[in-house]
Amino acid sequence: MLNFKAFLKDESGAGVVELILIIVVLIGIVLIFKEQVTKLVNDIFKTITKEAGKV
Predict the structure, then answer these.
(1) How far apart are CA 24 and CA 20, in angstroms?
(2) Domain spans of the chain, in order of start
């Protein structure tokens, strides 16, 4: 019974689980806002291309 209590208090893998959860949330956000991010990046590159022609 003592080993089981020690097992429950052991947090050695908690950092890995937290990291995986953060990655999953970030991937979810990217999938949700994919169209908006793509449009924003395309607009930025179009502006850069136009302004580069002036220089």
Answers:
(1) 6
(2) 26-55
